[in-house]
Design brief:
The protein has 323 residues and is an alpha/beta fold. The chain folds into two domains: 161 residues, D-Maltodextrin-Binding Protein, domain 2 (3-Layer(aba) Sandwich); 116 residues, Periplasmic binding protein-like II (D-Maltodextrin-Binding Protein, domain 2, 3-Layer(aba) Sandwich). The chain is built from 14 helices and nine strands. Strands 1, 2, 3, 4, 5, 6, 7, 8 and 9 form a nine-stranded mixed β-sheet that branches. The longest helix has 22 residues. The protein starts with a helix and ends in a 5-residue tail after the last helix. 46% of the residues are buried. Belongs to the UPF0065 (bug) family. It comes from Neoroseomonas terrae. This is Tripartite tricarboxylate transporter substrate binding protein.
Length: 323
C-alpha cells in the first residue's frame, strides 16, 4: 500500500469513528416526556410542575405531561423515575424533602436522590408558613402562640411524615420548647382541608398553598421559615424577626433525571429548561407565590447536595422515622 493510500484509509477510518461521536453529541426528543410529581394534585409541587411543563414542551417540541405518583413521602414517584429507562423522557420534580429528608427517613429504601439523579436546573423556592386557626388559637403573634402552646395541648398537621412541612414544625417546637401531637396528611390539599375544617390547631405549609387562606382570614400567619420575608406575604415576619433567631428553613424545587441518563440528553434538557424559565414563566411562578432561585444549571447538583446535607442533619437530630 502506498503512503497516499495509507493516509486515505486512515482518514476514512477516522471519519467512520467520528460520525457516531458527532451524532451522540446531539439529542432531540421524538415522543412525549413526563414530569413525575411525587405528591397528589393540587399542592405546590403539582402547581410548579404544570407551570414549567408548558414552556418546556414548546422548547423541546414535544408534549410534556405531568404525572402524579404519590406515596412513601415521595419515594414511590422517585423510585419510578429511577427504575424507568434513563433516556431523558422521564423527569423528576425534585423537592427539598426528596433530596434532603428521605435518605434519612427511608434509609432502608436505598433511594438517595442526591446520589442517584442529575439536576437539570432549579425552578424556585417557597417559604413554609406557620399558620394557626382563628377560633382555636387565641394568639396573634409568635411569642403569644408559644406561651399558649405551653399552657394547653395542641395538634399540628403537616403534608406528610418526614416532609419539609413536618421538619419545619419539629425544629420550631424544639427551639420554642413546646410539644404538640403530629397528624401527617398526604399532601398539601388534605392538610389545607383539615386546617379549614379546624381539625388541627396549627400547621406548616408553603406560601403557594397558604396565601389565599391567610388573605381570606381562614388562617392566621405568624411567621415564615426563611430568613427573608415571602414576597407574597410581606407583612408576615420571619421566625427570627418574630422571636426565634437562627431559624432558617426554605423549600426549593428542581427538575432532575436518573444519574445514568446520557450526557447529550442532559445537555439538551438543561438548555431547554433554561430557555423555558423565561421572564413570563418566572412571573407565572411568582403568581403562584414561588420565588426564583439564581443557581446556574451546571452548579445546581453541588448546591442541592449542600442544602440536602443540612436537611439530613436536621432529620437525623429529630430522629424521624417513616410511618
Amino acid at each position: 500500500m502506498t503512503q497516499f493510500a495509507r493516509r486515505a484509509a486512515l482518514a476514512g477510518l477516522g471519519t467512520l469513528l467520528a460520525a457516531p461521536a458527532v451524532r451522540a453529541q446531539s439529542w432531540q426528543p421524538t415522543r412525549p416526556l413526563r414530569i413525575v410529581v411525587t405528591y397528589p394534585p393540587g399542592g405546590v409541587n403539582d402547581i410548579v410542575a404544570r407551570i414549567v411543563a408548558e414552556p418546556l414542551s414548546r422548547e423541546l417540541g414535544q408534549p410534556v405531561v405531568v404525572e402524579n405518583r404519590a406515596g412513601a413521602g415521595g419515594n414511590i414517584g422517585t423510585q419510578h423515575v429511577l427504575q424507568s429507562e434513563a433516556d431523558g423522557y422521564t423527569i423528576l420534580l425534585g423537592t427539598t424533602a426528596l433530596f434532603g429528608v428521605n435518605p434519612i427517613v427511608y434509609a432502608s429504601s436505598g433511594i438517595d436522590a442526591v446520589r442517584d439523579t442529575t439536576s437539570l436546573g432549579m425552578l424556585g423556592q417557597v417559604a413554609n408558613i406557620l399558620s394557626v386557626i382563628p377560633g382555636k388559637v387565641e394568639a396573634t403573634d409568635l411569642r403569644g402562640f408559644i406561651a399558649e402552646a405551653k399552657r394547653r395541648p395542641m395538634v399540628f398537621g403537616s403534608v406528610g411524615n418526614g416532609s419539609s412541612s413536618h421538619l419545619s414544625a419539629v425544629v420550631f417546637m424544639k427551639m420554642a420548647g413546646i410539644e404538640a401531637t403530629h397528624v401527617p396528611y398526604r399532601g398539601s390539599s388534605p392538610l389545607v382541608a383539615a386546617m379549614l375544617a379546624k381539625d388541627v390547631d396549627f400547621g406548616f405549609d408553603t406560601s403557594a398553598t397558604s396565601t389565599a387562606h391567610i388573605r381570606s382570614g381562614a388562617f392566621r400567619a405568624l411567621a415564615v421559615t426563611t430568613t427573608t420575608r415571602a414576597s407574597a406575604l410581606p407583612d408576615v415576619p420571619t421566625m427570627a424577626e418574630a422571636g426565634l433567631p437562627g431559624y432558617d428553613l426554605g423549600i426549593w424545587f428542581n427538575l432532575a433525571v436518573a444519574k445514568r441518563t446520557p450526557a447529550p440528553a442532559v445537555a439538551k434538557l438543561r438548555e431547554a429548561l433554561g430557555k423555558a424559565m423565561a421572564p413570563q414563566t418566572v412571573e407565572r411562578l411568582r403568581g403562584a407565590f414561588v420565588d426564583p432561585v439564581s443557581v446556574p444549571a451546571a452548579e445546581s447538583d453541588a448546591w442541592i447536595a449542600a442544602s440536602a446535607g443540612r436537611w439530613q442533619a436536621i432529620a437525623r437530630e429529630a430522629n424521624i422515622a417513616a410511618d
